[in-house]
Amino acid sequence: EPIVDIRDLSVHYGLRGGSLARLIGSDAGTVKAVDGINLTLRRGEVVGLVGESGSGKSTLGRALLGLAPATEGSIEFEGQDLADLSGRRLRALRRDIQMVFQDPSAALNPAMTVEEAVGDALRVHGMRSASERRTKVIDALERVGLSPVELFLEKYPRDLSGGQKQRVVLARAIITGPSVLVADEPISMLDMSVRAKILQLMLDLKQDLGLTYVYITHDLASAKFFCDRIAIMYLGRVVEIGPTEEIFANP
Ligand code: ADP
Ligand code: ADP
After folding, report:
1. Nearest residue CA, atom 26 of ligand 1?
2. Do 99 and 61 meet the contact criterion of CB atoms below 8 Å apart?
3. Please, which of 16, 32, 85, 242 could form a disulfide with 90 given CB 3.0 to 4.6 Å?
4. What is the ipTM of this complex?
5. Collapsed DSSP state (helix, strand, coil) of residue 80
6. Cβ < 6 Å from ligand 1: which residues?
7. How many CA atoms lie within 13 A of 13 on its CB side?
8. Res. 113: pLDDT tops 70
9. Collapsing DSSP states into helix, strand and coil, what is residue 106?
């Protein structure tokens, strides 16, 4: 039973509904960012999306969060078509599928403390009680290795290193109890010395929380270390997919 089932998915940019191009049946000016992808994610696995810049990796990742609407095809999460979700169920999906990006500085509001930033993910999902939030924030910060926690709660992003900021971003992502985490180049802006530590942390979180990962990268060495399966993307398509050892065994 797959946790996510992507079927014949295409995401095209550039054609607006009612545009002249559509009227005259031309697709000139359309970018087929994702072009007919089939991919199922099994619960608890790490699937790498690798490929050169512009091959559609980020678009596919964003589509999983409902942030890049399907032009054709569908994405099912636990048997539910994302396109059919609305209102309360769509908000619930925002807890179940989370995403982290490459630049932790851009992801964090400079005016929010660590406690506010991580707790905000709960507040937007309706947890009113500050003390309940604090308990969960402390647990999340411990899980991402920001301890002693009291040292970090009142800090602002400017007080933190890049690796610490990415840990805060991960804490904010896991605090809603997601089952899928889409990580788009999560280590590529970090210092070399902390990259392996963040990847190892992500593996620990997977172990502890039973996460399923989509790991987007152009760094083959990290994909080889981190992924169970790898999908190689080119021009919006998956051109090769298989277990990591098979992908790397090819002559
Ligand atoms: P990757 O993550 O592999 O670098 P992207 O998904 O970012 O690839 O981009 C795939 C293609 O879609 C590229 O040609 C890119 O220019 C285009 N694209 C991505 N986002 C948009 C957008 N919001 N509007 C128009 N074109 C986009
Ligand atoms: P290369 O193959 O480029 O010489 P490595 O194989 O040492 O480099 O590592 C490449 C990347 O893979 C590292 O930057 C790190 O992100 C990841 N990596 C490799 N080994 C580990 C490890 N034991 N724990 C966590 N990450 C690792």
Report:
1. 13
2. yes
3. 85
4. 0.74
5. strand
6. 13, 31, 33, 51, 53-59
7. 11
8. yes
9. helix
